[in-house]
Design a protein that fits this description.
heterodimer, A: alpha+beta, B: four-stranded antiparallel beta sheet, three-stranded antiparallel beta sheet, 2 helices, 15 strands, globular
Chain lengths: 302, 217
């Protein structure tokens, strides 16, 4: 299984959008979408993205997960999975190889129980100001057989948001968890298809739009660090009025110039792009292949 | 004394308080072990033991802005539920780090910083708060300064300050040293001005690095 260990540093930029949904509710804020009042930008935790990936890996690849999604005590989880030590935990669980874990063991310190994940994601942030909405509905059932009245339900949602996630894959941490290129391929697939598959009521209409993995050459200990800061939304509409990906262009000229300045360090760019998303360089519409023509490209297909 | 100076920034930061397990208020600046961890991460160390004899000073360079956010934590005791914590995060933090160390890897660190390289992925307090940029400022010779003078970094709380009208001081009790099991060994109170302007001090050990005066944490 472990045939192709990760040997290169890589960076991930993942852009998806949501319509009339709650991309990531805050349990301590009446489950409203996570929101920064100062900038009117929406954000989504790394945990939400990892959940999407984990669920996909479990459902479609039948992978064993350390963080199953059920509220389980770590001690019990260790017993259920018959985990003997950290090495064994890495071998058994793909999510530990990817994201790391803390596996509490009695009488051991923090350094013996935690595994740093080679793949780390920042919080995702909307690339534009977002309008927040409260929509009321009627509950389906009455509270008791006698009562005829049903209660109201409130949904907190956003009409539209284009969200960018940034992540790094570190080859040195990958050597510790024995992460393979196959694992990373599954991660990317989980991000793309898993996001499409979010079809609970609060997560309807999630669509992946752009996924880029910038793979650096072997031996390079450099990464750009801010791919998500190098793209922005261009539109004739006000940010809050955006309702569809076809109403905007993604301006990528700062990203292109940054990556071109790193050209000697970069081995290839893996990518997937949704045809509905328009890229532009200094306002001029271009295809992904055109924009990044200076790099060896590898199209991801599932 | 040779000092390496670099700036570090990110979209978010969270620096936990060492003296309590329940508060999720972030500290406004990274404690000394966090800075050592960051340097260790750049150098590729898996712990910070080798760095314990290094000197660190921190200057807060961006206005302090915070964000509150609810998070589900895993319950590690057998109650079968999640713990909901309201976390306070720093928004768009930017710090200038002053770092001095008598070790051969000091110059390897300088090289890594000059080339923008890091061995592990650097972050600000929590793994998901990946650093956005690390900018190398330079390597300088530090010379001692006799107070009274201004200080641009966070200073120890027992430093004798020149009284100034209308100054708002922030005192924070911060972890200074941890052992290899990440247990608290020593805390120190540090002080800075809320408007982030330089502190005027009357005593203490102050070093001048380029055009800034620093106090080791």
């Amino acid at each position: 299984m472990r045939v192709n260990p990760v040997k290169n540093r890589s960076e991930i930029l993942f852009i998806y959008d949501v319509k009339w949904a709650n991309p990531n509710g805050d349990p301590l804020d009446e489950n409203r979408p996570r929101f920064d009042d100062e900038t009117s930008k929406l954000f989504v935790t790394d945990v939400r993205l990892k959940r999407t990936v984990r669920d996909y890996l479990a459902d479609y690849y039948n992978e064993t997960l350390w963080v199953s999604g059920e509220a389980e005590v770590p001690d019990k989880r260790v017993k259920t999975l018959k985990i003997e030590n950290l090495e064994d935990a890495c071998q058994k669980c793909i999510d530990i190889r990817l994201f790391g874990a803390v596996i509490p063991q009695k009488k051991s310190g923090a350094s013996e129980t935690s595994i740093v994940g080679p793949v780390q994601f920042r919080y995702g942030t909307s690339l534009h100001r977002v309008k927040m909405m409260t929509v009321q509905g009627t509950a389906a059932f009455a509270t008791s057989s006698e009562s005829k009245q049903r209660s109201f339900r409130e949904d907190q949602l956003v009409p539209y948001a284009l969200i960018a996630f940034y992540g790094v894959v570190n080859q040195h941490s990958a050597a510790v968890t024995k992460l393979t290129e196959e694992d990373v391929s599954k991660l990317l697939e989980g991000m793309w298809i898993g996001t499409k598959n979010l079809i609970t009521r609060s997560k309807m209409e999630h669509n992946p739009r752009l996924l880029m993995r910038v793979v650096y050459k072997e031996g390079v200990n450099y990464h750009c660090g801010e791919l998500d800061y190098l793209v922005r939304v261009l539109s004739e509409k006000e940010d809050e009025e955006l309702r569809d990906v076809r109403e905007l262009k993604l301006e990528v000229s700062p990203l292109v110039s940054s990556l071109e300045s790193l050209k000697e360090k970069i081995e290839r760019i893996e990518y997937a792009i949704d045809p509905a998303l328009t890229l532009s360089v200094n306002g001029e519409e271009k295809t992904f292949e055109n924009v990044f023509s200076e790099f060896p490209l590898k199209k991801l297909g599932w | 004394m040779e000092v390496i100076v670099f700036d570090v920034s990110g979209p978010f930061g969270l620096f936990r308080r060492g003296y309590t397990t329940t508060s999720s208020y972030t500290l406004p600046f990274p404690p000394r072990p966090t800075v050592l961890g960051l340097v260790g991460c750049i150098l590729g160390y898996r712990d910070i033991q080798r760095l314990q004899n290094a000197n660190v000073a921190v200057q807060i360079k961006s206005p302090l802005k915070f964000l509150r956010m609810g998070t589900n934590f895993v319950e590690t005791k057998d109650r079968g539920s999640r713990v909901r914590i309201s976390l306070q995060l720093l928004k768009e933090p930017l710090y200038r780090i002053f770092f001095s160390w008598e070790d051969e890897d000091f110059y390897r660190l300088e090289n890594l910083l000059r080339n923008g390289e890091t061995i592990f992925t650097p972050y600000l307090g929590v793994a998901s708060f990946i650093v956005r940029r690390i900018d190398f400022v330079g390597r300088f010779k530090a010379v001692p300064v006799e107070p009274p003078c201004e200080v641009h970094t966070v200073a120890r709380g027992d430093t004798k300050l020149v009284p100034e009208p209308g100054q708002f001081l922030v005192y924070e009790k911060v972890t200074r040293q941890m052992n290899e099991n990440r247990e608290l060994i020593e805390s120190v109170v540090y002080v800075f001005k809320k408007d982030l302007s330089p502190l005027k001090v009357e005593g203490g050990e102050v070093w001048k690095v380029a055009d800034q005066n620093i106090v080791w944490m």
